[in-house]
Amino acid sequence: MINRAPVALPQSFWLHLVLPRAVILLALVTISSTVRVPVGFLYVLLVADILFFIRQFLRFQANADNHLQSMGGMTLIWAGYLVTLVAGFASISLWWGAFLFSSQPETPELFTDQMDRLHAAEYELSLSDDLLSLTFNGTITFGLTKRATELIAENPQLVGVRLTSNGGHIYEARGFANLIREHGLNTMVRGDCSSACTLVFVAGAHRSMTPDARLGFHSYALEFGSTLPNLDLEKEQNKDRDFFRGQGINEAFLIQMFDEPNTELWYPSREEALKAGLLTQ
Q: Which residues cross the membrane (predicted)?
């Protein structure tokens, strides 16, 4: 066993007690609040710290004994005991905090964030390869207007929107439609564009369809239940009928567009769509 030469008590106070413990306490502050360390590894670190803390105190005590034998005073020895006591309580508190921090579950996803993520999974809204059009596929649902607003603001070069959708929430469709009309974007249907999607389509400055595309219309219905207070389906239909009228759709079509029961879809032919003014080219 190697015997260590005695160290002057002031030097031992700083080197054996204060500085090492200060470094350890700073590390404990980090792992008790910001860095999540696995609990198993924390136990290993805790045992190592306990052993090191004992070693710190024993080395200081050995130098304190030498100090007393040399007729030194008690002031610095009592200061060392006080530092040891305070550091011990601080270490216990910080180790307790580190175990609590590492044991708690990850921050749960906020309900609003979860719903936004789930709704976003129901559709795809992306830029075309030429960066001139937005391509929308899927269900018209919550968050669509917000996402479309962001993309349009980020891409002022956009000239059109390509649609493939079986519909969805009429209020989001209205928001998307108003956005398209405000920016003078063109609309094109690829595949089916039914129900609420037709409101988005008719908002286009110029409107077109691919050869195999279809527009599907039906009367309005509630998604849940048969009635809701203060909600008049006929009033809602007339509101959107006025939007179609403002986009140049003829009166004969406006009378017929909501005649189909909400359980069925009416697909006007291309000739009927041209005659009605749904298609501009």
A: 12-31, 37-54, 75-98
Q: Domain 111-220+232-276 classified CATH 3.90.226.10? A: yes
Q: Is pLDDT at 2 greater than 60 in this prediction?
A: no
Ranges of each domain in the chain: 9-103, 111-220+232-276
- pLDDT per position as a tens digit, 207-246: 999 999 999 999 887 654 444 445 678 889 999 999 999 9
Is pLDDT of 1 > 50? no
> How far is residue 189's CA from residue 161's CA, in Å, rounded to a whole number?
9
What whole-number distance in Å separates Cα of residue 15 and Cα of residue 21? 9
Q: Nearest-CA neighbor of 122 among 73, 69, 168, 177?
A: 168
Q: Are 28 and 98 in contact (CB under 8 A)?
A: yes
Instruction: Classify residue 165 by burial, with Cβ atoms within 10 Å: 0-12, 13-18, 19+.
Output: buried
Q: What is the pLDDT of residues 174-206, one digit of tens each?
A: 999 999 999 999 999 999 999 999 999 999 999
Report the candidate in 166, 177, 217 with the shortest Cα–Cα distance to residue 201: 177
142: which DSSP letter? Answer: T
Locate 233 and state its tokens: 């389906």
